[in-house]
Amino acid sequence: MKIDITKIANAILLMLENDVKHLSDRKVAILLFLCDYLYQERTGEKIFNETYIKNKRNPEPVVLSEIFDIIANGEDLDEEDERLYIIQELLDYLDIEILTKDSFIELKFLKMEEEFDKSFFSKDELKILKEVIEKYKEDTPRKVANATFKIEKVRDTNLDEIII
């Protein structure tokens, strides 16, 4: 399964346009999980085609977490590496600021000229995106992560196993 990085970039643009607070790589990852989870519950499919693993703090997107780590650590990739294409696609839509904190590195997303393009999403996908953004727009990443552990499927999944 191949993640849809264009949809992910546009979802982040929508989050920025809606002034989502505390919008770090961690909060983006959790919000994308919630969108995919809710959409899958209603339709049997996912919006972003990402796989999410349960870790101690929150559901973690497998491919996107790896991409965020590469960006955060300034890792050089071979020209043939497919991850380089994914990163470039993301950077076509967004600017990413790397913030070094005491014990971790955080990515902050910044809007460039690109506008959110709703044509990448179905009406039902847009409804889920807006619903999740509205519900969690003011919350810290920790608070949103805590909300995911109220979901039975998340609680019932063992650590390091696939949730969806």
Mean pLDDT: 96
Please compute the radius of gyration using only Cα atoms.
15 Å
- Global outline: globular
- The percent range for strand residues is 5-15%
What composes the largest sheet?
2 strands, antiparallel
Query: What string, H for helix and E for strand, traces the elements in order?
Result: HHEEHHEEHHH
The counted number of beta strands is 4
Q: Which structural class matches the secondary elements? A: alpha+beta
Number of helices: 7
Helix content: 40-55%
Distance between the termini: 12 Å
Strand order of the largest sheet: 1-2
Uncertain ranges: none
Give an overview of the whole structure.
It is a single chain. The chain is of the alpha+beta class and 164 residues long. Helices cover 50% and strands 12% of the residues. The chain contains 7 helices and 4 strands. A two-stranded antiparallel ribbon has the order 1-2. It has a two-stranded antiparallel ribbon with strand order 3-4. A hairpin with a 4-residue loop joins strand 3 (94-100) and strand 4 (105-111). Helix 2 packs across helix 5. The radius of gyration is 15 Å and the shape is globular. 31% of the residues are buried. The mean pLDDT is 96.
